[in-house]
Design a protein that fits this description.
There is one protein chain. This protein is an alpha+beta fold. The chain is 22% helix and 21% strand. The protein is built from 6 helices and 10 strands. The protein has helices at 48-56, 147-151, 199-212, 214-217, 239-246, 265-288, and strands at residues 8-14, 59-66, 71-78, 86-88, 93-97, 102-107, 113-118, 128-132, 135-142, 167-171. The chain has a 4-stranded antiparallel beta sheet with strand order 4-5-6-7, with no helix packed on it. Strand 8 and strand 9 (135-142) form a beta hairpin. Helix 3 (199-212) packs across helix 6 and helix 5 crosses helix 6. The longest helix has 24 residues, at 265-288.
Length: 294
C-alpha cells in the first residue's frame, strides 16, 4: 500500500489447477501429495493444442488496486505468473521483479514503465530501499524457485526458461556495475528407451508419479528449471539403477530420499515405465515440430 497514491499494489497470478476426487479408501502417506486427490489422473496430456490453450490462459500482472472504488486503477500484464513482490516508494515509484528475469520500475500513480534491467533469473522476493549518507539504494534478493517452477509442468516455463542464479542485487542512480554473463543453458535431448510396458503398467505409474513425484519433478514429468527432468534422465534406462534411487535412497544427500515406505519395487518399475512413455511422447512432439527436411 502506498499512502502517497492510496493504491494497493498486487502481484496477481491467473492460473488454473485441476482437481479430481480421490479414489475410495484414500489414506495419507508419509511422502508425496496428501491433498486427498489424485494428480496422476488430471495431469497435462501430450497434446500441443491443449498445452497451448492452458498456457494462453495462464498469465500474471501487476495490479494497482483502488480499495475505495473497488477496481483497478491500472494494470501491467506480464508473460506469466509467479512474479515478485512489490515495493512502493515515496518518490512515486513501484518496483517489481518478474519471472521472466527483469527488475522493473513503474510510476506508482499511472503504471508507466520507467526502467527495466535484465537480471538473468526469476525474481520472487519483494525489493526494499534504504539510504546511506543521503544516497538511496534499491535492493532485491534475486533467485528463482517456489512451487510454480517445480510442480506445474509445461506451464512452469510460461515466462521463459527461467533459471535460478541467486544473488543480492543493489541499484542506485548512476550505478555502473554489470552482471557477469549467465552460464549457457544445457542441451536437453530426448533419448529414451523404447516403450515396452503395457499401457496398464504405465498408467498405474502415472498415478503414482502424480502423487509421489510430481510435486518436485513436475506435472506429467515435465520439470521446470530447478529439479531434474526425469524424461531426460539416463536412469530410466536401468530398472536396477532407478530402484536404487527411488527405493534405496542413494541420492538422499542431494535431496532425493527413499520412498520405500510407500512404493514397492513393482511400483517403482511402473513409474519408470510411465517416464519412458512420457519421454517418447514428448520426443514425438518435438520431432513433429521440426521443419520439413525434404
Amino acid at each position: 500500500f502506498s499512502p502517497k497514491t492510496s493504491l494497493v499494489y498486487i502481484p496477481a497470478n491467473e492460473s488454473g489447477f485441476p482437481y479430481a476426487a480421490a479414489p475410495k479408501g484414500w489414506t495419507p502417506k508419509p511422502e508425496g501429495f496428501n491433498t486427498a486427490m489424485d494428480p496422476g489422473l488430471v495431469s497435462m496430456p501430450a497434446d500441443t493444442k491443449i498445452r497451448a490453450a492452458a498456457a494462453a490462459a495462464t498469465t500474471g500482472s501487476l495490479i494497482a488496486w483502488d480499495p475505495v472504488k473497488q477496481k483497478a486503477a491500472w494494470r501491467v500484464s506480464h508473460i506469466g505468473p509467479s512474479n515478485g513482490g512489490i515495493l512502493a516508494t515515496a518518490g512515486n515509484l513501484v518496483f517489481e521483479g518478474t519471472a521472466a528475469g527483469d527488475f522493473e520500475a513503474f510510476s506508482a500513480d499511472a503504471g508507466k514503465k520507467l526502467w527495466s534491467v535484465p537480471v538473468q533469473t526469476g525474481v520472487i522476493a519483494a525489493p526494499m530501499t534504504y539510504s546511506i549518507d543521503g544516497e538511496q539504494y534499491v535492493a532485491v534478493l534475486a533467485g528463482w524457485g517456489g512451487v510454480w517452477d517445480i510442480a506445474t509442468g509445461v506451464l512452469a516455463n510460461k515466462s521463459g526458461s527461467t533459471r535460478n542464479i541467486s544473488r543480492l542485487l543493489v541499484y542506485k542512480i548512476g550505478g555502473t556495475g554489470k552482471l557477469p554473463p549467465p552460464p549457457p543453458l544445457k542441451a536437453m535431448p530426448f533419448d529414451p528407451p523404447p516403450v515396452t510396458a503395457a499401457i496398464t503398467v504405465s498408467s498405474a505409474g502415472g498415478e503414482l508419479f502424480g502423487r509421489y513425484c510430481s510435486v518436485c519433478h513436475g506435472d506429467a514429468a515435465v520439470a521446470g528449471g530447478l529439479n531434474p527432468d526425469l524424461r531426460h534422465s539416463g536412469m530410466i534406462n536401468s530398472a536396477a539403477n532407478f530402484k536404487k534411487i527411488v527405493l534405496e535412497g542413494v541420492y538422499k544427500n542431494q535431496g532425493m530420499v527413499s520412498f520405500a515406505a510407500d512404493i514397492s519395487a513393482a511400483d517403482a518399475e511402473s513409474i519408470r515405465a510411465y517416464l519412458i512413455k512420457r519421454a517418447n511422447e514428448d520426443k514425438a512432439l518435438e520431432m513433429a515440430a521440426l521443419p520439413d527436411r525434404h
